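Structure ticket #2291
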Amino acid sequence: MINLAQKDIAHSLGKFLVTAMGVGMLFGIVLIMIGVYRGMMVDAEILLNDINADLWIVQEDTLGPFAEASRVHEDLKDTLRAFEGIDKSEALTFQNLQLPGETKPIRVTAVGFDVFGKINPINPGRLVAGEPLTKEHYQIVVSEKTGYKVDDTFKLGRDIYRVAGVTRDTVSSGGDLLVYISLKDAQNLQFLYSNARIRSDRARGISETKEAKMANAVVATVRAGYDIDDVANKIKQWKHESVYTRTEQKAILTKNLIERSSKQIGLFTAILVVVSTIIIALIIYTMTLEKMKEISIMKLIGIPNSMIIKMIVQETLILGILAFIFGNLFSHLIYDNFPKRVVLEIPDAWMLFGVVIAASVLSSFIGIAKVIHADPAAAIGG
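Resolution: structure written out below.
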């Protein structure tokens, strides 16, 4: 039996392929948007996984440094070590910095930690050059995307820092590049006033007072055999700080911080799918109009509506499948050029394929409606 869809597509193959490529670019953007969301989820967990702490102790009634301002005393880490069930504890700081760049400043998130402590946020597996921090002052480990190399130097605050190491794929929950400095340097950058501010305060008659050393959070690991939730409740009861387990901190990062972005991405993705469906419907409708005389002739010589409808559905499905293939190729060609991480996963592609098939079937209805109402007598009128 003659395949009408195959004959019709072969008659205008170039136009059909170009149309499929155009629709495929829309589907490619849909995959990219899903990949952006997946990338945000991965980025949110990088630092959390590298620190690998069981408990996060932050300022009371706050969600911690990733969500809002949090300040705790650095010596809280020493107190926690005396708690039953605590194995290790260290103070950390988190702050946004602008590193000097060739053309413009580079926005980064700096992690401050005790270089000689027992919890090191620098994952050795991500270190691609140089070494971790070995001194308490004037060393920094940077991401390779900052463009700095080992032994490069630059001014940060009042001091000159030397690049000790370079990492790969290290970003904050917001997608900013991560750099690592010692806790003492981080405290100087975050909590100490500039010389101009000190002089201004003296002129105002404000006396200098020595502040206790602060951090943004204290992280701790729990000894084997102890229940993490029980230890967390004891710290809440006795130290009056907010305490989050690793699971709770992950929920804060992935739900509280990314929720609004994920909703926006989801809405934009849904709009793109709807637009793609409408475009396919319009294309099929236009293709059907172009061959209305041929369809009338088919009906006049006795070809049943079911065969003509089958042709329309087949053309729509072929268009959708080709668009999906082109979309995958397009997304994989460009995703690595985006400034933030884009993660393309096979399950997401299969999910989109199901959506494309459903959208194609729905789009064919407008062409089917035109076929059903086609008048066989129109073939005679010319």
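Closing remark: Residues 32 and 334 are 9 Å apart (CA to CA).
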